[in-house]
Amino acid sequence: MSIKNKSYGHFDDANYEYVITSPFTPTPWINYLGNDGFHGLISNTAGGYCFYRDPKFRRLTRYRYNNVPVDTGGRYYYLKTDDDMWSASGRPVETELDSFECRHGMGYSRFLSRKGGISSELTCFVPLGETAEVHKLTVTNEGTSSKELSLFSYLEWCLWNAEDDGANFQRNLSTGEVEVEGSTLFHKTEYRERRNHYSFFHVNQSITGYDTDRESFLGPYRGVHKPLAVTNGQSTNSVAHGWSPIASHHINMKLAPGETRELMFVLGYVEVAPAEKWESKGIINKQPAQALIAKFDTTEKVNSALDELHTYWHTLLNKCHVSTPDDRFNRALNIWNQYQNMVTFNLSRSASFYESGIGRGMGFRDSNQDTIGFAHMVPEKVRERILDLSATQKADGSAYHQYQPLTKKGNSAIGGNFNDDPMWMVFSTCNYIKETGDFSILDEQVPFDNDDTTKAPHFEHLKRAFDHVINNLGPHKLPLIGRADWNDCLNLNCFSTDPNESFQTTQRGKSDIAESLMIAGQFVAYGQEFIALCKQLNKDELAADCQLHVDAMIQAVNEHGWDGDWFLRAYNALGDKVGSHENEEGKIFIESQGFCVMAGIGLDDGKAAKALRSVEKHLATEHGVMLQQPAYSEYDKYLGEISSYPPGYKENAGIFCHNNPWIVIAEAMLGNGDKSYDYFTRITPSFLQDIQDLRKSEPYVYSQMVAGRDAATPGQAKNSWLTGTAAWCYYAASHYILGIQPDYDGLSLSPCLPKSWPEVKIHREYRGAQYDITLSNPKGLSTGIYKLTVDGEVQIGNTINFERFNASHKVELTLEKA
Ligand code: BGC
Ligand code: NOJ
């Protein structure tokens, strides 16, 4: 069979679901539960873990990253009859099911199994605003005779600090503590000392038995695929003291033909005020847990929480709903891309199947960029996030590269000096204000480096971001790169020859020579945004002053940043060119082409068009646009981590999807609608259903990286879910292909469509107004001269003025002439 045709699932658009039909997908295909602090990762066989706010410091359940078999650890439900045992989610028990389906939906995952006449349906979700996963399990006897069976739940507790949990065994094999009361299994490790929180696993009916000690449940040297207690059909009522605490309920049931049993499990986290921690000596105060359990102890309560979740998502996704002639595009924009935007916004790059949840907090550049796909969805959260980021900025305008979600403090282990960081906050803030009209964010008093004695209005933080670039220019008057710019692996001041050193945090170079054309383009793009913002605020003098700096930067790019057919990428610490035809490898890079064109540099003199033709010629492949070419074949200490990767992977000539939408936008800015759309379709999962087996990662969300032409398997995707690709692709498609551009005065329309689209309909909510927009393209154009009407009234310009039109309106834009 051709590997190009193997499919493991399909979309179910009516239900906003992706239906996975095999437990054995090429990699675990995961989903996320929870929007508001309590989060779970859940694979297509219920593997994964959950945590409260911080996947490093508040992890509830254990997951074994990069283990064999892959995807070990999860919420497992075992079913056992006299003849057979199996898993309600298809794994880890190896028994093949008669039928299996995993339906990943918006904030929930549902597993359907059938074996020997018994069917089960397991739905896992985090109810809105709650600190718990709820698992609704129904078991039905589909046969004609009555059946006896045993059900076992299972999860393993993580001892809160996930890093310590996986490393410090001399301590943590002695600290585990549990309590059992009725059908609730409590996990209270370290509660006796400095923790004011515990977790629990509950089921809403009486149980036959339980286990809380892993070894007792699994049996010596056995795995989760074949626990001894399940094989024996009997749990051991073990109480864990140290070692590895788990939670497992055992319930015997007898089902008449056609009978269904419904069980509601709650896996919860609660915090207790220090003075109220204990019920009596050594016995924890269970009231907060009981209160949480009481919310989900009947089928009706759980069903209504699920309904609320559905309504929440449907309302949210309906804020921008598009209908174009291409269902694959609609599906991406209306469902999965927006959903992924929420997830990346919530988690930055912290916890996924590829991000272990212990390594990285919230990234400064990542989180700012994530807001551009999310500002129209939940603007209040974007406001809060921008202000949190602003508080980690330092007084000189630079920024901590990351912050920890629990403390919201800048992470000093990583530090700063990634010189693209500051300007992303200008972008996120302007985008937020254009979406919401909320200029008040600029007046918020925000500290520098979380030091409350240094508060200044958020606007001042933006100004310092701008100044940071102009205060850090190199010999060509281009921005100094610092440790790295957007490309974390272009470490021009690192010079590392020691394999034990981190590329990200080592800096040897004098740092006042190496310059970045990516930051130059970014500065021009977002410097212009800043100037436009100043003008909105009537700060004309400041605007004029900033304009001088932006003009100077454009001049520096034209003089020192143009290589003849494309924009250079950088100057290294020796002052040599990077990304030039003069180089043997790494002659052309995507980032500077994308950013300089997005900044508008070279639109007037042909450089932009030329740069994009070079991208097409040297970097474009059927699977997307590669980061650079030719790939580096040798490690070069003057380049850093980029040259450490094997050719074709990651930043060394992989297809780094995050910057593909920059080219989509750049082509749209040049009016090339077909080209722009073509690039968009090459990396967007809904267009790639027939190469699932090649791609390997989830076919409903973007992956960070697709292997490039030089790799062994071009087209193979890795690092799914947590990637700036999500927000940027949504932004490119909505702002540039469909051309829906929020602006200070209202929503502007500048579509650049594929020529073959005669009509597009868009429902867009904007600052509380509702616009039903029709884009008509009777002449088969991409862009050009148009006619815009609002409620039949012809408009001058392309903006739906918000002051005049702030209720429900019918908007029509007709492309009339190229
Ligand atoms: C990766 C980058 C990543 C960086 C920071 C590098 O190894 O290649 O994509 O941003 O680490 O964690
Ligand atoms: C992943 C990081 O999260 C992001 O910040 C960076 O821009 C890209 N890698 C490229 O290196």
Polypeptide structure, described:
It is a single chain. The mean pLDDT is 97. A ten-stranded antiparallel β-sheet has the order 1-2-9-10-11-12-19-16-15-14. Strand 1 (9-12) and strand 2 form a beta hairpin. By secondary structure, it is an alpha+beta fold. Among the domains are: 34-314, Distorted Sandwich (Beta-galactosidase, Chain A, domain 5), CATH 2.70.98; 361-472; 740-817, Sandwich (Maltose phosphorylase, domain 3). Bound molecules: beta-D-glucopyranose and 1-deoxynojirimycin. Residues 488-489, 504, 641, 650-651 line the site of beta-D-glucopyranose (BGC).
Itemize the secondary structure elements and their pairings.
Blueprint: E1 9-12, E2 17-20, E3 31-33, E4 38-42, E5 50-52, E6 59-61, E7 76-80, E8 85-87, E9 99-104, E10 108-115, E11 118-125, E12 132-141, E13 147-160, H1 162-165, H2 169-172, E14 178-181, E15 184-187, E16 197-203, E17 209-213, H3 214-218, H4 228-232, E18 245-255, E19 260-271, E20 278-280, E21 283-284, H5 287-294, H6 299-317, E22 320-323, H7 327-347, E23 362-363, H8 364-370, H9 379-390, E24 402-403, H10 421-436, E25 445-448, E26 451-457, H11 458-470, E27 515-516, H12 517-536, H13 540-560, E28 570-571, E29 577-578, E30 588-589, H14 590-598, H15 607-618, E31 620-621, E32 624-625, E33 628-629, E34 655-656, H16 660-669, H17 673-683, H18 692-695, E35 703-706, E36 717-720, H19 725-737, E37 740-742, E38 746-749, E39 759-766, E40 769-776, E41 785-790, E42 793-794, E43 799-801, E44 808-817
Parallel strand pairs: 40-44
Antiparallel strand pairs: 1-2, 2-9, 3-4, 4-5, 6-13, 7-8, 7-13, 9-10, 10-11, 11-12, 12-19, 13-18, 14-15, 15-16, 16-19, 17-18, 20-21, 22-39, 23-24, 25-26, 27-28, 28-29, 30-33, 31-32, 34-35, 35-36, 37-38, 38-43, 39-40, 41-42, 41-44
Helix pairs in contact: 7-19, 8-10, 9-10, 10-11, 10-12, 11-12, 12-13, 12-14, 14-15, 14-16, 16-17, 16-19, 17-19
The structure holds beta-D-glucopyranose and 1-deoxynojirimycin (NOJ).
Beta-D-glucopyranose (BGC) binds next to loops.
Domain Glycosyl hydrolase 94 supersandwich: 17-297
Protein name: Glycosyl transferase
InterPro entries: 6-hairpin_glycosidase_sf (IPR008928), 6hp_glycosidase-like_sf (IPR012341), Gal_mutarotase_sf_dom (IPR011013), GH65_N (IPR037018), GH94_catalytic (IPR033432), GH94_Enzymes (IPR052047), GH94N_CBP (IPR037825), Glyco_hydrolase_94_b-supersand (IPR010383)
